[in-house]
Design a protein that fits this description.
Blueprint lengths: L4 H7 L4 E5 L10 E8 L4 E8 L5 H9 L5 E4 L11 E4 L4 E4 H9 L3 E6 L2 H13 L5 H8 L2
């Protein structure tokens, strides 16, 4: 059952898991995204998840020894994930509340659940340790 738009918008926050197709990645296949920051100017920062164990991002992370930038999350009823999931902390995606509103109204974005505080901290640490995340983004995350 779809919740009313105003309740959906009020619920957007850190640790929440959303499922949608994004033009910001190289596939039309929907992915799980986790909100890591809800900024002051209605800006949302999200990380993308993959369940593909042979994913080229995962192989690259392992090759470079950036293990802390890859976070594993086991699916459960709370997070809404359906498979073992890996979060790539070397990329971050920016959306606005308005983007989410539009996608929700068009039925192309679903709220799935919420990750634990422990997984959230691992993701934050991975973002802070990643050489691919800009210092501006790292400062926003540290000052949240």
């Amino acid at each position: 059952m779809k919740i009313p738009l105003d309740l959906f918008l009020q619920g957007i926050n850190e640790k929440k898991v959303y499922y949608f197709s994004s033009v910001k990645i190289n596939t039309n296949i929907p992915h799980y995204f986790i909100c890591v920051l809800k900024g002051e100017k209605d800006t949302l920062l999200l990380v993308c998840c993959t369940s593909d164990r042979d994913d080229k991002r995962k192989r690259r992370i392992e090759k470079l020894g950036l293990y802390s930038t890859l976070v594993w999350i086991k699916p459960d009823n709370d997070n809404g994930l359906t498979k073992d999931t890996f979060v790539d902390c070397n990329s971050i995606f920016e959306y606005s509340i308005e983007d989410f509103k539009t996608m929700y109204q068009q039925n192309i974005l679903e709220y799935k659940g919420e990750i634990t505080g422990g997984h959230y901290e691992q993701i934050i640490n991975g973002l802070l340790e990643s050489p691919n995340i800009t210092n501006d983004i790292k400062e926003l995350i540290q000052n949240k």
